[in-house]
Amino acid sequence: MAADQAAGVCIPVQESVTLRQTVDYVIQEASQADKTPPIHFVFLASWRGEDPGTDARRTAADELLEQVSVWARYDFEDAGLDPESVEINTDVLGTSDYLFSPSDYAETLSAYAAHHDIGRFIVDPEYSLVGQTTLVEPLEYELRDAGFSVEQAPVERPASRTRFVGSTNRARFLALFGTSFIFYQILGGFAGLFDIVTGAATALVVAISLSSISFYRDPSLTESPKRLLRSLIYLPYLLYEIILSNLAVARVILDPEMPIDPRMTRVRVFVGSGFPLTALCNSITLTPGTLTVKADDQELYVHSLLPFAREGLFDGSLERWIRFVFYGREAARFPTPRERGDTAVLQQPTATDGGQDVDEETDTVADDGDLDQ
Questions:
Q1: Where are the domains of the chain?
Q2: In what order do the strands lie in the sheet with 343-345?
Q3: Cα separation, 80 vs 71, whole angstroms
Q4: What does the pLDDT look like over 14-46, one tens digit per residue?
Q5: Are 343 and 371 in contact (CB under 8 A)?
Q6: Topology of domain 3-152, per CATH?
Q7: Pairing mode, if any, of strands 149-152 and 118-123?
Q8: pLDDT tens digit sequence for 132-190
Q9: Under 8 Å CB-to-CB from 121, ≥6 apart: which residues?
Q10: Residue 282 pLDDT > 80
């Protein structure tokens, strides 16, 4: 659809520091046109409408759209136009499917635009997809490729105060230097003086370059060695889980008659943010049959291929091990996600070609999508 063939303007909205300025820019542009075009503010959902526990998200989205609509009417009135004579529409999109990639978002927006005679999109510069502003440019490209006019609102963006690089100190510097030096000696086989000199030089470069970004907290002589030792205990268990899951997935691949049962699941975990959460997400992804799709604070969205993989996820073995690694043995004595009621299957059971429910030997799914305990 060409831009001059449609009068409507669509603006995807999300909470951001520049949203108010973006709305003001849109209204100023529309008020200067010979004929004020219909304005469409849309919220792209990161959940499905039938997912359990999404009422609060839908309410927040509706409230944001209502706030944006109020801003727009106020700005039209400020520009000397009657707000009641202007068509302002709001809608929540994407609640029937999971939206993960820029192409998913673009397809949803394109379908909405085709239905409402929209030819132009204006994007908030701080708008983000699944928490990443870097994915907005691919979204704009997809929309332009579909024949729409797309522009980013030329508003003033506040300087980011978040620092990726933290401050270094002696403890972080020495810890990274020592770790790098020992690792270098292990690779070199402790061959002699040459390896000691080159290892020290290499470790010095690594410590100077990376000590400010390599630790989520300051290392200590009491806790850091314990975490390292517990990590060495955890690695054989993780390797065992990887091998076991590999065998389960390989069996399904080699035997076409064995059914698969792909489901999207949500699990709330309690391991803390930062490095512990990253370690858990990567451990889940490294285990064949499960893939961490999204981490929303302590809520993980995990795609599971087999009931076997899903059972292990809900039993929380990896969560307990990560708690053990970072917080010790006492922290590992924690109820599983299944025991806490922090699990949900976000898709209804599917049937195999033979018509049998593939979920007959695992937990059942309630009508509202929650996992029966």
A1: 3-152, 170-210, 224-345
A2: 290-296, 299-304, 263-268, 343-345
A3: 14
A4: 988 899 999 999 998 888 888 888 999 999 987
A5: yes
A6: Rossmann fold (3.40.50)
A7: parallel
A8: 555 677 888 889 989 999 999 988 876 555 454 556 678 888 888 988 999 898 888 88
A9: 9, 10, 11, 12, 109, 113, 140, 143, 148, 149, 150, 151
A10: yes
